[in-house]
């Protein structure tokens, strides 16, 4: 609904210069409030009221839902739940809480007061909220080299040592060609290199452990010697990962999301970090069933389960990253949805990795472009992901992506990379 636009309204708007502010992060909200010359002691409380955040919970017990609503209303916020809650026709319900960070903090205090029957809900909501809002930099400690995250969006350059990868199969199968390309990607701005020796394109058949190691062996040791950036090994097989880490890889990129218990044990034993990606089934079968009742909810739940299981078994939570797995058991539209809502995955509390580069949904969005003509759409996807708070972008097109992300990061942080000392200077 657009308000009537007569001379009086236009005059009133001009008189007060009313405008909706674009202030999303707590830092931006605080800055806007400070610019009114508000009482400094009140800036914190006002900042916490600055933005309504919707937080979704699944499977909330029937008896808890009205209590939650009552407590939310009592702090001036609100919640939504299934209508079946009112006539007791459901046992559990999804709940969406709608409140500002300040209201959530009041809610936590109330929920934790004895007899504190909803304390676990307070814990769940508080974790998701803290993770989502956190901008704290962190470091992933690879076996040999580390990757610092959070100050700017990192680029993970793809190096496929495969004859059959969907976009670059056969180009880097000889060790000299692979080394040349890896060094080139680092010069182009790659912060880490992801080396794969088995294609995971839809329908691809599995490569044996021996074959995968045979492809990696002549390359990994040399890469470790000549590169100064961390190396990840893109494999689902614990035996391959073990060998790769011994040869010089720093972290594991597991598209099967640590499904194999031996992979989790390897991480516990070696302390290696891992990217936990979501995929349904295997590359051979994953496109057969792309029906989800709730796509984002299911991908989120699977990543929450996979990381929780790994942590329970002894993997350090500081060494995990998550990836919703664009193109892995998803229809084209579903990839759009995951990309558009990518920031939600930050609520899990792990750095978010995403790989859209050259994938078929980019072709679909650009009138059927083949992989070689999907670069611009891939860069647009990387920009969208970075604006949604992704920490690492996996791409074949390193140079163009790194350049685009340099601008995104400069806009997000309000400063250029080369004037690190003057945070915030030069705004307006
Ligand atoms: N995509 C591919 C492979 N590995 N790993 C993560 N974490 N995220 C991804 O999106 C991802 C991945 C598929 O791309 P590519 O390596 O180019 O193709 P292929 O599997 O055919 O080698």
TL;DR of this structure?
This protein is α/β, with parallel strands linked by helices and 428 residues long.
Radius of gyration: 24 Å
Q: Which segments are poorly predicted (pLDDT under 50) over 5 or more consecutive residues?
A: 421-428
- Strand order, sheet with most strands: 11-10-9-8-7-6-13-12
Choose one word for the global shape.
globular
Order of helices and strands: HHHEHEEHHEEEHEHEHEHEHEHEHHEH
Bound heterogens, unique: 6-hydroxymethylpterin-diphosphate
Structural classification? alpha/beta
Task: Record keyword descriptors for this entry.
428 residues, alpha/beta, 8-stranded parallel sheet, 3-stranded antiparallel sheet, 15 helices, 41% helix, binds 6-hydroxymethylpterin-diphosphate
Fold and architecture overview:
The chain has helices at 7-16, 26-34, 43-48, 64-74, 101-112, 119-133, 175-188, 209-226, 238-247, 261-270, 295-312, 332-340, 360-365, 375-387, 398-413, and strands at 53-61, 78-81, 92-99, 138-141, 146-149, 154-160, 192-196, 231-234, 251-254, 274-277, 320-323, 353-354, 392-395. The two termini are 31 Å apart. The model is unreliable at 421-428 (pLDDT under 50). The relative contact order is 0.08. The chain is globular. The protein has an eight-stranded parallel β-sheet with strand order 11-10-9-8-7-6-13-12. It has a three-stranded antiparallel β-sheet with strand order 1-3-2. A two-stranded antiparallel sheet has the order 4-5. It has 428 residues and is of the alpha/beta class. It has 15 helices and 13 strands. It binds 6-hydroxymethylpterin-diphosphate. 6-hydroxymethylpterin-diphosphate binds at residues 158, 160, 162, 165-167, 196, 199-201, 234, 253, 255, 275, 277, 323, 325-326, 353, 355, 394.
């Amino acid at each position: 609904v657009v308000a009537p636009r007569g001379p009086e309204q236009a005059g009133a708007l001009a008189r007060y210069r009313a405008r909706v502010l674009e202030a999303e992060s707590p830092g931006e909200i605080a800055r806007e409030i400070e610019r009114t010359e508000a009482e400094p002691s009140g800036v914190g409380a006002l900042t916490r009221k600055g933005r309504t955040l919707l937080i979704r919970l699944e499977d909330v017990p029937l008896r808890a839902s009205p209590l939650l609503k009552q407590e939310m209303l009592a702090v001036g916020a609100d919640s939504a739940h299934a209508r079946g809650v009112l006539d007791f026709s459901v046992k559990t319900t999804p709940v969406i809480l709608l409140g500002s960070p300040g209201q959530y903090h009041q809610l936590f205090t109330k929920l934790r007061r004895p007899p504190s029957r909803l304390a676990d809900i307070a814990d769940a909501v508080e974790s998701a909220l803290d993770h989502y809002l956190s901008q704290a930099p962190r470091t992933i400690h690879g076996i040999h080299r580390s990757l610092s995250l959070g100050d700017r969006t990192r680029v993970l350059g793809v190096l496929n040592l495969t004859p059959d990868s969907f976009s670059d199969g056969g180009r880097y199968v000889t060790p000299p060609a692979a080394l040349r390309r890896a060094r080139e990607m680092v010069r182009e701005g790659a912060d880490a290199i992801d080396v794969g020796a088995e294609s995971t394109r839809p329908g691809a058949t599995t490569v044996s452990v021996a074959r995968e190691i045979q492809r990696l062996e002549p390359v990994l040791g040399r890469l470790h010697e000549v590169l100064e950036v961390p190396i990840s090994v893109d494999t689902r097989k614990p035996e391959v990962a073990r060998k790769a880490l011994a040869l010089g890889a720093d972290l594991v990129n597991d598209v099967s999301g640590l499904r194999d218990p031996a992979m989790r044990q390897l991480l516990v034993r070696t302390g290696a970090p891992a990217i936990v990606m979501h995929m349904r089934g295997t590359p051979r079968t994953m496109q057969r069933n792309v029906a989800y009742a709730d796509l984002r909810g299911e991908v989120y739940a699977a990543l929450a389960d996979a990381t929780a299981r790994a942590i329970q078994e002894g993997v350090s939570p500081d060494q995990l990253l998550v990836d919703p797995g664009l193109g892995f058991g998803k229809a084209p539209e579903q990839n759009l949805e995951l990309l558009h809502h990518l920031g939600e995955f930050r609520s899990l509390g792990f750095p978010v990795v995403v790989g859209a580069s050259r994938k078929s949904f980019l072709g679909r969005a650009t009138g059927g472009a083949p992989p070689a003509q999907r670069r611009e759409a891939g860069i647009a996807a990387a920009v969208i992901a970075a604006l949604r708070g992704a920490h690492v972008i996996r791409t074949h097109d390193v140079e163009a992506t790194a350049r685009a992300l340099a601008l995104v990061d400069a806009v997000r942080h309000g400063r250029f990379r080369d004037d690190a000392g003057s945070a915030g200077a030069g705004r307006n």
